[in-house]
Design brief:
alpha/beta; Rossmann fold; 2 domains; 12 strands
Length: about 270
């Protein structure tokens, strides 16, 4: 019997997950299908009830449901509990177990490059859900200090407090001034949507150097304005699509117990760009 998987969120029509997972199922010869299923904000309970009714095997969770989905889980893994959000769910006869692959997905490209995070100073631009998972990831890797730059100081403060709870020294800076001190940080991470559609810079890039590691979680376009400018400074670059694939691979493996086909996913994703 064909197993059905989905991604839930709103908006959902731009999602690349169906292409990624359907290519992977085909490559591994699995009788599975993956669909995009729009659940508007405020309709999560009814949406999940409907998915249970059709016997959905598992699903990914994206904006705006990652946090709200937590209360509908029967069980959550440690990453979910730490971050307070889930993005991957398995349905076993109506029993929902949640996972968070954002943390490991974020760290995967760093580990692939064998970059040591221990004792590093980090600048994270943005203070939303993605930034929370990134803070949890860096805490795991024993960084020295995390500085948050965000348009809303209150949100930056909340995220800095979260970092401290995880045992990492943290503070926040005015986003307009964040670029002035960029050379102080080993990692500069854009966790905002600035750069999407190739427009805008999250911070000034004048003090990015060849020693900077610039990681932009925006995956479309591949070369965001931040990445293009960082390349000119000969900085080390980590692309958003790498994180996207790492997250998808982990979801695939949680659901199927089969190793995800990295090359098939990469070709599918970059072919879409």
């Amino acid at each position: 019997m064909t197993k059905t998987y989905a991604v839930i969120g709103d908006p959902i029509d731009h999602s690349l997950s169906p292409a990624l997972h359907n290519a992977s199922f085909a490559f591994r010869g699995l009788d599975c299908i993956y669909i995009a299923y729009r659940i508007p904000k405020g309709e999560l309970d009814d949406g999940i009830a409907a998915l249970k009714k059709i016997g959905i095997a598992g699903f990914n969770v994206t904006i705006p449901h990652k946090v709200d989905m937590m209360r509908l889980l029967d069980e959550a893994d440690q990453e979910c509990k730490t971050v307070g959000a889930t993005n991957t769910v398995v349905n076993i006869d109506g029993y929902l177990k949640g996972y968070n692959t954002d943390v490991e997905g974020f760290l995967d490209p760093i580990r692939k490059r064998k970059i040591d995070c221990t004792g590093a100073d980090v600048l994270i631009v943005g203070a939303g859900g993605a930034a929370r998972a990134i803070v949890a990831g860096f805490a795991k890797e024993k960084v020295h200090k995390i500085t948050i730059a965000n348009r809303t100081p209150q949100n930056a403060e909340h995220l800095a407090s979260f970092a401290k709870q995880l045992g990492v020294d943290s503070d926040h800076v005015d986003i307009a001034k964040a670029g002035d001190t960029a050379s102080r940080y080993k990692f500069i991470v854009n966790a905002t949507s600035v750069g999407l559609k190739g427009i805008g810079l999250p911070i000034s890039t004048k003090n990015i150097t060849k020693d900077s590691i610039v990681y932009d979680i925006v995956y479309m376009p591949v070369d965001t304005p931040l990445i293009l400018e960082a390349k000119e400074k000969n900085a080390t670059i980590i692309y958003g699509w790498e994180m996207l694939i790492a997250q998808a691979m982990k979801s695939f493996e949680i659901w199927t117990g089969v190793q995800a086909p990295y090359e098939a996913m990469k070709l599918t994703l970059l072919g879409r760009f």
